[in-house]
Specification:
Length: 312
């Protein structure tokens, strides 16, 4: 009886702590609420009783793992080995996180996917890539989760859509992610351009009205821990010359010109670029209407974030 009471008290304490974390997450201004909303959407959580009715258990577990990866305080509240889904641990069920188990599960699914066996080739049209994803059972399931959150049929929430895109691209094998990221269209192919917008989160995840300056995008990113890590990795993998010469010195950066910015464009750089999807680094930015003193630095940031010259 004493042991039962002891474990019950532990379970109750854990439930209280995790529910408190959830409340903190919902009220935070650091993007946690957006990821949590995607968790609720994907896991089909009932508001009454917080019951989980996930039809896609694997998808539910994956998005919860994303939550724990991006916000480590949730590590003790989630479990990726539940029979139902991990959200039950927020109601007090104790278990340990087994991230290797879920990553092996993902790899096994993708090893059975025909799309993942295709070698990456440049200049694939976005319409072709989109069709291949829709026709592939594993890829289509991932795409459906992302479209559910970023759908234009409901009012767009940029942060939630960005969280869903991060989740989407994190679950792609590198070859598949490359196909989707670097696909393109000929100018007049409207169907292809619609497919490209769908794969790249337009307009919900990347379009703000009015568009921010590229200077503001970088400064906002540096104030967000998750974005700052991705930006640091992207700059060090793709623009080593910039990092080595100037670090974070904006006065130094202003002395650089685009021709003095060699891009590595190797596999590590491509992976870092793909990792930027679902962050404010992919938001369309502008350098118009800025004071002359700021235009040079803004143009440099726009070149780093949006120029295709690195991968063409």
């Amino acid at each position: 009886t004493v042991l039962v009471m002891y474990f019950t008290s532990i379970s109750t304490a854990q439930t209280t702590d995790c529910l408190h974390l959830r409340e903190q997450c919902i009220n935070a201004a650091n993007g946690c609420e957006s990821v949590w909303n995607v968790v609720e959407d994907v896991c089909n959580i009932s508001v009454l009783g917080n019951r989980c009715k996930a039809e896609d258990v694997i998808g539910c577990n994956r998005i919860i793992q994303v939550l724990a990866d991006e916000y480590p305080e949730f590590k003790n509240c989630v479990c990726t080995t539940d029979d139902v889904c991990s959200i039950t641990t927020l109601l007090g069920k104790q278990c340990s996180t087994d991230k290797d188990n879920i990553s092996m599960e993902t790899k096994l699914q993708w090893s059975l996917s025909a799309l993942s066996k295709q070698a990456y080739t440049a200049n694939r049209t976005c319409l072709d890539v989109n069709k291949e994803c829709v026709e592939d059972e594993v890829c289509n399931k991932q795409l459906s989760l992302y479209l559910k959150v970023c759908s234009l049929n409901k009012k767009c929430n940029m942060e939630e859509c960005q969280a869903a895109i991060r989740f989407f691209y994190q679950n792609m094998p590198f070859e598949v992610a490359q196909m989707m990221t670097f696909c393109d269209c000929i100018q007049r192919d409207e169907s292809c351009h619609r497919a490209k917008e769908l794969l790249h989160g337009k307009p919900c995840a990347v379009t703000e009205v009015p568009p921010p300056s590229c200077l503001n995008v970088i400064h906002m990113c540096e104030e967000n821990e998750l974005c700052r890590k991705k930006y640091t990795a992207f700059r060090s993998k793709c623009w080593r010359h910039v990092t080595k010469k100037c670090y974070d010195d904006e006065a130094c950066l202003e002395t650089l010109i685009k021709d003095d910015m060699p891009c590595s464009a190797n596999a590590d750089c491509k992976a870092a670029y793909i990792s930027n999807w679902g962050t404010m680094l992919r938001v369309e930015c502008t350098c118009q209407n800025l004071p002359p003193a700021e235009k040079s630095l803004c143009g440099l940031f726009h070149h780093m974030l949006h120029s295709k010259s690195c991968f063409s």
